[in-house]
């Protein structure tokens, strides 16, 4: 589908749609931490039904775009305060935690090509452009040229057409002598007048 492929490949198009965070809950309820403002990579992997390895790969590839939409990597004191407020009692395996805002999660939905849930989110975002057979205005074909008018036939064409209209078995016109012979009846041969036939 052309519109969805354009969304996967265009950062400008994703930026134009990233404010529609409500689309995530329309497809599937987005899991959020107790602060109702953030979610984690493992929570998003469950939401999009993809492996965490795949999700982290996409995050690394588009880290700059995700950061501009609320993605952060917490460490040190900021990480401890965040865990105390949202995940009390949880022990971190590492010293770094990536957290996503709903807007960053939506951008991630526009980047995960291999997720069925992300595909459904993209279809919601695109609306009428996602219908089967729909083509974006930029990819519409130019209108077809009008059909050419038939060219008027020349003398050679007229002669050929006249020749085709003539009957196949036409008679050769008779000469004046022939017409005269048809008009004068033929006399039968007989003995000359006023005489007798010689023996």
Tell me what the structure shows.
This protein is mainly α and 199 residues long. The chain has a domain at 2-136. The protein contains eleven helices and three strands, in the order αααβαααβαβαααα. Strands 1-3-2 form a three-stranded antiparallel β-sheet. The longest helix has 11 residues, at 76-86. The chain starts with a helix and ends in a 16-residue tail after the last helix. The model is unreliable at 134-143, 175-181, 183-187 and 195-199 (pLDDT under 50).
| Strand numbers in spatial order across the main sheet | 1-3-2
Gap between N and C termini, in Å?
A: 118 Å
Q: Measured on Cα atoms, how large is the radius of gyration?
A: 47 Å
- Number of helices, counting only DSSP H or I runs of 4 residues or more: 11
Pick out the low-confidence regions: 134-143, 175-181, 183-187, 195-199
Structural class by secondary-structure content: mainly alpha
Q: Give me the strand/helix succession.
A: HHHEHHHEHEHHHH
Strand content: under 5%
Overall pLDDT confidence: 78
- The amount of helix comes to 40-55%
Number of strands: 3
- Give the overall shape, derived from the CA principal axes: elongated
The profile of the biggest β sheet is: 3 strands, antiparallel
Write the layout of secondary structure elements.
Layout: H1 2-9, H2 11-17, H3 22-27, E1 39-40, H4 41-48, H5 52-61, H6 63-67, E2 72-74, H7 76-86, E3 97-100, H8 102-109, H9 116-126, H10 155-165, H11 176-183
Antiparallel strand pairs: 1-3, 2-3
